[in-house]
Amino acid sequence: MTTATPTAPAQPHAAPAASGASTIESVLVENRVFPPPARARDGARVAGIEAYRALRQEAESDPDAFWATRARELLTWDTPFTRTLDDSDPPFFRWFDDGMLNASANCLDRHIGTPVEDKTAIVFEADDGAVTQVSYRELLERVGRFANALKAQGIGKGDRVIVYLPMTVEGVVAMQACARIGATHSVVFGGFSAKALQERIIDIGAVAVVTANFQKRGGKELPLKSIVDEALAMGGCDAVKTVLVYERTPTAWTRNDRDIPFGEALAGQSADCPPVPVEAEHPLFVLYTSGSTGKPKGVQHSTAGYLLWARMTMDWTFDLRPDDVFWCTADIGWITGHTYVAYGPLAAGATQVVFEGIPTYPNAGRFWQMIERHKVSIFYTAPTAIRSLIKAAEADAQSHPDRSDLSSLRILGTVGEPINPEAWMWYHKHVGGERCPVVDTFWQTETGGHVITPLPGATPLVPGSCTLPLPGIDAAIVDETGNELPDGTGGMLVIRKPWPSMIRTIWGDPERFKKSYFPAEMGGSVYLAGDGAVRSAGTAAMDGADRGYFRITGRIDDVLNISGHRMGTMEIESALVSKTDLVAEAAVVGRPDELTGEAICAFVVLKGPRPTGDAAKALAKELRDWVAKEIGPIAKPKDIRFGENLPKTRSGKIMRRLLRNIARGEAITQDTSTLENPAILEQLGEVN
Ligand code: WT7
Question: DSSP assignment of 98-126, as one string?
Fold first, then answer.
């Protein structure tokens, strides 16, 4: 991390530094607080911290009435619900469950006949810079036509469709079209391998795959369709009857029996496809994410509760106004791209930017240039992107945000991993011009939308803190048995009451759902986030303004967070040991990384002798490529260390804490006298 002294903020409500010593201290201990600027507070939906407290109070005193009112007001129902929460069978909570609605109708049809009808829904900027605009009316027609094409293939309510598409309007259209006919989509990020794709196709029992011949990123064409072919050829995918192929590039591709190019599938289809009403609890989508075992979890979301949250947080967290231009940079392959690209902005009638490319092509000023070009007013991205763009701006003044006119910006957001205060300060100063609140939104694939986050017109901000829970989110910090810990003491983050957009189950594995998220030791109905956190007791340096503020300290399970992407250590270990001709044993841990937040470090025991020098380097490369093929490039270990064996306890358990120390280059403090072969510690110190 750069150790530059943080720049003094414009008018922070910071404690006066009493002495030189405390000034130095301030670099280490956060004591900067940024109250909402008048510009953000005036006219905000939630204006001022008292308004936030009042909302929270309202949600606490009568949660049913609180959610029911909002669900009636913000969603359009085909059959109105009469029951708000059914908590008779925890943790299988049901919301609004006797009501019926359609998610796509709520994102598109709802706006027809309103001023939003002719508003731009999507400003699409392609990798090569070409810009196209789609109005709400046009988007509805495209979704209708695509939905009819799906129906023509015999796909309907309850069927599962895999979406393996690049960040394009078509990606959003495919998701909305599934929702329109009641099919459950499962989007697989375009960076996942054939093997990862095949596992998901099988687990979900997909009847169709929607893909593209190629995707374009950073000026390169990357194949997608051939990866689908590979996945299907691996076997077990017989339920897949159709593969719809979007010809994103003019490049040739191999057409197989079940393949249908978009052009053919859409030809002659009517743009009019009546939305199919579904039960409130109908699974809108399943999104796979990493857990602490080798097998990814299919996180199942509902229709109504999920959509309500997506819609509501557009108002709360982003304080969306009619003329905003919203830009969330996440890919539709992740939950952020579901809630804040495919559903939330559309349900709220926003104009949003969808970007196909990467932040560093053709240069690292792309994001800033795009903000200027499209007059983006709300910008939402990941800390990793910010950190890499800071580095790029420091190296090349041409890519500095100062080179672009960013005066359209009103609100900035971050998501996916803890943001270090230095990066927060840079973002606030150089991107936000010290005018824009930075909302550090904490949430997860499982929570469906934001759960702990500042509100831009209400919450005083503290760099590095996601501040306070949203109204109705009963977040707490507890020990292993569920006892609440005092403020200032780190522990496990839990949410004690159900909320509408929470995960409903793990697809096909309700037992794992219960075991992973609702530990029996805590009574079986408290949601365990899997993160460590600490809540501030209120620091004197801030006059206690930060009392109750949450700071996320990172995962407490075997899940790593690489550039804001979740990866299970067990998944990577399984991938490594599946290289049976080479690998005898493997253990994977995380270590901090300046750019990506965490980096993957693999300790490997080979079947043959321990390699050294160039041979070790070549084998490390072979293993990295293998992992990329098994899971995807995002899972490639940064460090590979070879040992003759791994450090184990007498009972044969791998000493992971020790491995973490080694990975971080820390001094080893624990007792290593029980190790069979202490010499391996030295071996494992060598990085390849
Ligand atoms: C994990 C969830 C939420 C959408 C993208 C990631 C980490 C997320 C923050 C934040 C600190 C954060 C947590 C969480 N995380 N947001 N603002 N501050 N940590 O979704 O892949 O399900 O990952 O990301 O560790 O558990 P995900």
Answer: T-EE-HHHHHTGGGTTSTTTTSEEEEEE-
Return the closest-CA partner of residue 305 out of 326, 287, 285: 285
The two tokens of residue 107 are 């994102």
What average pLDDT is seen over the chain? 94
> From the CA of 444, how far away is ligand 1's center (Å)?
5
Of 163-172, 462-471, 491-500, 645-654, which gets the smallest average pLDDT? Answer: 645-654
H/E stretch holding 279 reads strand 278-279
Who's near 316: CB < 8 A, 6+ residues apart? Answer: 45, 46, 450, 455, 470, 471
Percent of all residues in the chain with a pLDDT value above 70, rounded to a whole number: 96
What residues does ligand 1 touch, defined as CB less than 6 Å away?
A: 289, 334-336, 415-418, 440-445, 466, 529-531, 552, 555, 561, 564, 566
Q: Over 90: is that where the pLDDT of 403 sits?
A: yes
Mean pLDDT of 287-301: 94
| Closest C-alpha residue for ligand 1 atom 20 | 444
Atom 7 (ligand 1): residue with closest C-alpha? 417
Nearest CA to ligand 1 atom 23: 444
The DSSP 8-state label assigned to residue 96 in this structure reads S
Say what the pLDDT of residue 474 is. 98
pLDDT at res. 8: 36
Pair type for strands 160-164 and 184-187? parallel
For residue 634, report the phi and psi dihedrals to the nearest 5 degrees. Answer: -65, -15
Decide: pTM greater than 0.90: yes
Written as one letter, the residue type at 60 is E
Distance CA 156, CA 148 (A): 10
Per DSSP, the residues of 292-359 read SSSSPEEEEE-SHHHHHHHHHHHHHTT---TT-EEEE---TTSHHHIIIIIIHHHHTT-EEEEE-S-T
Which atom of ligand 1 has the smallest separation from the CA of 566?
21
Distance CA(344)–CA(324), nearest Å, equals 14
* Burial class of 634 by CB neighbour count within 10 A (0 to 12, 13 to 18, 19+): middle
Task: Give the pLDDT score at 264.
Answer: 98
What stretches of 409-547 adopt beta strand conformation (E)?
411-415, 438-441, 475-478, 491-495, 505-506, 527-535
Q: 469 CA distance to ligand 1 centroid (A)?
A: 14
**Which residues, in sequence order, are CB contacts of 626 under 8 Å at separation 6+?**
575, 576, 579
Expressed in angstroms and rounded, the spacing between residue 564 Cα and the centre of ligand 1 is 7
| Paired strand residues for 187 | 163
For residue 168, the one-letter residue type is T
Residue type at position 354: V
Q: Which atom of ligand 1 is nearest to the CA of 290?
A: 21
Q: Candidates 187, 328, 331, 442: which one to mutate for ligand 1, based on the most atoms within 8 Å of Cβ?
A: 442
Query: Are the CB atoms for 35 and 14 separated by under 8 Å?
Result: no
Per-residue HEC secondary structure of 346-385 comes to HHCCCEEEEECCCCCCCCCCHHHHHHHHHCCCEEEECHHH
Write the residue with the smallest CA distance to atom 6 of ligand 1. 416
Beta-sheet strands, E only, within 383-506: 411-415, 438-441, 475-478, 491-495, 505-506
Give the full edge-to-edge strand order of the sheet including 527-535: 475-478, 491-495, 527-535, 550-555
With beta carbons less than 8 A apart as the criterion, state whether 190 and 224 touch. Answer: yes
- Model pLDDT for residues 559-602, shown as the tens digit of each residue: 999 998 999 999 999 999 999 999 999 999 999 999 999 999 99
Pocket test for ligand 1, best of 287, 461, 558, 566 (most atoms within 8 A of CB): 566
The count of other CB atoms within 10 Å of the CB of residue 3 is: 6
pLDDT value for 31: 79
